[in-house]
């Protein structure tokens, strides 16, 4: 076969391919006759890529079951694959110059990440939220607002902004979405743990948990969150007293998770407690095998029975100490759980982050 004939054959093959693609496009995709000047917002796009035409863009979409529609920027050749559809009232659409929107003719709303469709709404699980269960919640407060108001307590996967990977936390959704940091209610549970355990986090007993410094760092840097300490005085629903710190933030591993910010809000606190954290700002976290206190020789973690932020005077509070549960006055032991100047010994302590 001559070179000319080969070129003619390839040209014919290309034309046939174009005809097939074009036919498939017009068979499978439709441009709605409403809101023709609108495309979907970028929040409903899960992939952006380059394409030579809207037909090529649609061809890519046709191979993906999650893709229900496409938005295409004509001049820039940008193709947006969408897991959503333009609403009849265009409430989820935006004006975007030189752009067109096409949807699959047989498009049906699809829930991602094992979500289920109930009455045309996606019910999400395991920490996923969004209209299509398309993203992980950033923290428990985000999950509560988006999806999980009716859940009391559970383990959920979250992805704070900027975090390199998702991780699991314990959420108490009943009260607005609390991200548990510390739960300590049993006298047999001892928190005098290693540095590695305090960094990674650990669970103990039926209710006990420490979230881990690395997770706490990513949570605190991602948004403005409150750190709330709840002390249990008596075994009753009304026996808890909260202490509220705003703008809580810690540094990363290179600073040994230095305490950067914590502002006591007395008006929101339910008890007249000492401001135990302001004096500790600038201090790194310490454990018995990694004493980062700038004043050496005090042995604060060993003395207090747990890991915490310590300075030259150790600390005026000891949330990770031992529970003696005397049911009354302080025992006088350095290693008991206390929050100065409260003169009673807590039956338990719970610390969480909330937005």
UniProtKB/TrEMBL annotation:
This is Fibrinogen C-terminal domain-containing protein. Pfam families: Fibrinogen_C. Residues 1-22 form the signal peptide. GO terms for cellular component: extracellular space. InterPro entries: Fibrinogen-like_C, Fibrinogen_a/b/g_C_1, Fibrinogen_a/b/g_C_dom, Fibrinogen_C-term_domain. PANTHER family: FIBRINOGEN/TENASCIN/ANGIOPOEITIN. Coiled coil: none annotated. It comes from the Eukaryota. Keywords: Signal. Residues 131-355 form the Fibrinogen C-terminal domain.
């Amino acid at each position: 076969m001559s070179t000319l004939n080969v070129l003619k054959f390839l040209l014919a093959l290309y034309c046939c391919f174009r005809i097939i693609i074009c036919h498939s496009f017009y068979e499978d995709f439709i441009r709605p006759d409403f809101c023709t000047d609108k495309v979907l917002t970028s929040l409903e796009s899960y992939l952006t890529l380059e394409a030579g035409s809207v037909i090529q863009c649609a061809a890519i979409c046709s191979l993906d079951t999650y893709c229900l529609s496409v938005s295409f920027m004509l001049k820039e050749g940008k193709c947006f694959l969408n897991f959503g559809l333009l609403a009849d009232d265009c409430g989820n659409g935006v004006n975007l110059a030189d752009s067109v929107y096409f949807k699959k003719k047989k498009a049906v709303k699809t829930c991602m990440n094992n979500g289920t469709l109930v009455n045309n709404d996606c019910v999400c699980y395991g920490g996923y939220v969004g209209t299509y269960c398309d993203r992980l919640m950033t923290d428990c407060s985000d999950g509560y607002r988006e999806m999980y108001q009716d859940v009391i307590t559970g383990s959920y996967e979250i992805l704070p902004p900027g975090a390199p990977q998702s991780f699991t936390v314990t959420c108490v959704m009943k009260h607005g979405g609390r991200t548990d940091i510390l739960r300590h209610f049993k006298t047999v549970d001892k928190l005098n743990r290693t540095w590695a355990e305090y960094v990674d986090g650990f669970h103990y007993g039926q209710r006990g948990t420490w979230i881990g410094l690395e997770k706490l760092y990513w949570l605190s840097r991602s948004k403005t969150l409150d750190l709330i300490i709840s002390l249990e005085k008596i075994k009753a629903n009304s026996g808890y007293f909260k202490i509220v710190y705003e703008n809580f933030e810690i540094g990363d591993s290179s600073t040994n998770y230095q305490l950067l910010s914590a502002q006591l809000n007395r008006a929101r606190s339910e008890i007249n407690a000492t401001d135990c954290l302001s004096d500790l700002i600038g201090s790194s976290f310490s454990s018995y095998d990694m004493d980062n206190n700038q004043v050496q020789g005090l042995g604060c973690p060993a003395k207090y029975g747990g890991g915490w932020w310590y300075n030259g005077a150790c600390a005026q509070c000891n949330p990770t100490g031992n529970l003696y549960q005397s049911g009354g006055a302080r025992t006088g032991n350095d290693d008991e759980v206390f929050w100065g100047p409260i003169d009673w010994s807590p039956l338990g302590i719970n610390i969480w982050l909330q937005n």
